[in-house]
Design a protein that fits this description.
heterodimer; A: 146 residues; mainly alpha; B: 64 residues; 2 strands; 59% helix; globular
Chain lengths: 146, 64
Amino acid sequence: MNDITIATESRESRITRLKKALKCNAWLFLTTVTYLVTLYLVRENQAWDPKLRVGVTLLPVLPGLIYLRTLWSRFKTLDELQRRIQLEAWAFAMGGTVLVSTVMNVLNANGVGFENYPYGLEMGGAYLSVFFFWCFGVAQATARYQ
Amino acid sequence: MKNMLRELRTLQSWSQSDLAQRLGVSRQTVNAIETGKYDPSLPLAFKLAKVFEQPIEAIFEPQE
């Protein structure tokens, strides 16, 4: 009975952790969506006032800042192993994104690159890349310490 | 680093969650220390020593 209780608590705490992670990364997702929407709006509305165009262009910064704040406050609540896992995952995400970006830019510079991505990953692509590598990094680091 | 954490915890009839709660860390951290996959920081090692009322060297032993 005690074992069953422990197993249930453990599953519940895992679900709580997953919910927190999803809530935190929802801001990253929102930042990416906002970026894509504002990108479309600014490109499609060239006649807009330049000040309005600047304002709309910078809109993704707001959810981005909230994401960073959420991330930081969440990081402060983690214990030392979880901090290590997160730091390893972020290092992996940054390293992976720099690598992908560098490869794309080098290929583009040599004329054997990606026609649809002449400027490499760009901001939205960089966000998605960081997110992808972060997920992979967390999964890998968590498995290593289990 | 080898450690006696599992043995000491079992002696007290504590679950990993119980110990984690006493230390203020996650159960995953306790499990990782017990299985030798993670070496705790010095502050956490001192906390462990305090919880088990043992000197640090009685809990941790450097691996040859």
